[in-house]
Amino acid sequence: MNTPELQSLKMAWLAAAEAGDTLGQQRILRDHPAEQEALIDFIAGYHATVGTDLADEVTPLPLTQRAFQRALERTFVPQLALSTLVDLRKQRSLSKVDAARGLRMSVDVWNKFETGAIELVSLSQRQLDRLAQFFQISIDQFGSLLESSQPTISLNRRQNQEAARSEQQGPQRQSFADAVARSTMSKEEKQFWLE
Length: 195
Known about the structure:
- By secondary structure, the protein is an all-alpha fold.
- It has 2 domains: 4-76; 85-194, no CATH class.
- The chain has helices spanning 4-19, 22-31, 36-50, 62-76, 85-91, 96-103, 107-114, 125-135, 139-148, 161-168, 176-181, 187-194.
- Helix 1 (4-19) runs antiparallel to helix 2 (22-31) and helix 8 (125-135) packs across helix 9.
C-alpha cells in the first residue's frame, strides 16, 4: 500500500541518497519500523534500476547492508515452485491447525481450501485479500493455488471400477459462505469472514 506517509519517506530517502547522506538513509529506515519492509523493497528496486552498486559507495552502515541484502533476496531470489495450498502451508512451516488459527477459521474450513472444495468464485475480494495477506502472496497466486489444490486419491483395490470412478471426482465443491455456515467456527469468526 503506497500511503502518503510512505511516499514522503521514499522522497526523503531519495534526497538523502542523492546528497550522499548515509546516516540520513539509515535514520529513515530505523525511525519508521512499520514502513521498513516497503522501504527496503523500494531501495532494492532503486538500486536495481539505477544500477548503483553498494560496493562502489562509501562503506555502508550494517543496517543498510542487511536491509539491502534482505531486499535483494526477496526481490531476486525465486520462490520455491508451489502447486497447491498444502505446499504453500508446508513452505511456511505451518500445521493445518496453525494455518486455521492464524486465519481465524476452523480446521474443517481450512481443510476444504486445501482439498479444493471451496469455489474460488465464491470468495469476495476482501476475503481473498485476507487469505493472500496471511501467506504474504498475491491474490492471483492464492487463487491459482486454490484452483490447483486437489485431494489425494487413494483407491481400495477391492472396489469395483464404478465406485473407484465416483471417488476420483474429489470433494463436492461449495461456496465459502456455505462452508463457513456449516463449520464449527465461533460466531465471531464467522462474522469476521462473512461481514
